[in-house]
Amino acid sequence: MKSIRVPGMILFSVAVCGLCGSALWAADPPADPKIVQAFLDCQVVPKLGNAWDYTFAPGKFPSVQWDRPYLVEKAMGPFDLSVRWFDGQLNEVNVPSEPGRYAFYAEGKTEGGKTIRRAGTVYCRPKAWFGWSERPMAHLDFLPVDGLSPSMWRRHEEAIAAYAGRTVLLSILRQREGAVLLSYLHEMEALGGQPALTDTPIIRDHDYHLALKLKVLGREGQCAPLDRPRKRDGRASPMLRSGTEAEAGFRAGTADRLRRVCQAWFDESGEPFVVLVARRGVVVLHEPIGRWTWGPLTRQTPTEMASLTKLVTGLLFAQFVDQGLIGIDDPIGKYLPDFPTTGEKAITLRQCFTHTTGLYGHEEYGGLHNPWLENVIANYLDHLPVGKVHQYNGMGYNLAGKAMEVVSGKSIFRLMREHLFDPLEMRDTVLEEDLGFSCFSTAGDFARLGQLLLNKGAYGELEFFGPETFEAILPKPLGQYYPGIDKEWGIGITAMRQKRPDAGQGDVAKDATILSRNVIGHGSATSAILRVDPDNDLVIAQSRRRGGKDYQKHLTKFLTAIEEGLE
Question: pTM score, two decimals?
């Protein structure tokens, strides 16, 4: 174990508490919240100054340091940072004797009592390998950039591949992502056979750091595994299937009318999409509408579902709640160190999902793949208005994901695959980046999640969670939990009421909606759609890349056509 020092001095004062006799240390003056916020992005990195920042030869680990030591000192004061090294099998080592994956874990305690934690992946290269002497070519799939045509892309493909290869080489030499890739390549032979969908460089690195975290925290063997969805007793719940309009409870000709409405939508906006409409579990429309300028769009083409990812995260969390592993109103500090379990700064899981933690943004501070993201957030806890504001963000979802990982001992990406995507046969769905966005999927796959919600937690013979848990995750007025917050929100689920164009006119009520007032789902920056109407037994899904021109106008026509088709 080695220690590095954050240089500098900070004045402090000592106050003695007459009741407890303990010393209370306070920075003098307190750090500016903006400075502390900037510190949250500071990283411990291999010492800079050469081309081998994240890779090195056997025999000696690189020195590590803060990337912005002056900012660390200004925000947190001087403190020692102890560094421990681990090999690819999580053995603590002092010397890198063999090529492969290694990681450092750095920990310090400030004079104010805050624990600082950081970790990172590095790669020990074989002595005979010189990465700088390589000239890799990286052949990319076509990127639809700024109107570029596929034919022009192909004409310049070799030049693109050469430059992309140079970018990859620079990443290998200068970035943590390069060490992650090399570690994965080193371990490929050991994987053997056909890799699983979760056997990717980013997920394997995430798995590794979760296991390292459990080791550091002394929680190895203490996790409570999440059970797979259970077989239901008795009759199976509805599953999506093809069928007739009559079986679904639609008027004859509704599917053709929906096709015409969707085609007009594409013709006017230029944005293609895949649409699925189902009622009573019967799919009456599931088709791609339009095509991209660079190629066809199919039912199996995944696109970015953006913030619909939050709904997916909520459905996974519902299984933890249903099995009694985590309570919706439990404090995060019950599962993650560095957080309080009582008091006004005790963030709860409900707050994580309802945007009331005081956090902001998406994928801040390195996002979910920062091994100690939760510690970074805890270091800013003094400045968060916990439970006082509703501020839309994805960071609360990532914080909840860290809790699910520590409780179960399994990375969130494997949990998603094993407890949602595989049981629902969502074969075209990928999530390996962030829990507030980043899920790539299809209308067909997401419609299965919609039917799961219609069935109150079941799909076919499988029960993912029970009706009581389903009710617990539905949108609720937040004012009953957090006075002064006039919002309605659920656990990754929101109300998706679509106001009627003629609301408030004549005999039409001011709050009249297209379809029922109980439609649930979530919004999306890409304008992808998942809407579930329990009153009408409806699932509506769309996958797309952008909303395009007059999105709301066309959405209104589309939903109106569905409503008018109901028997």
Answer: 0.91
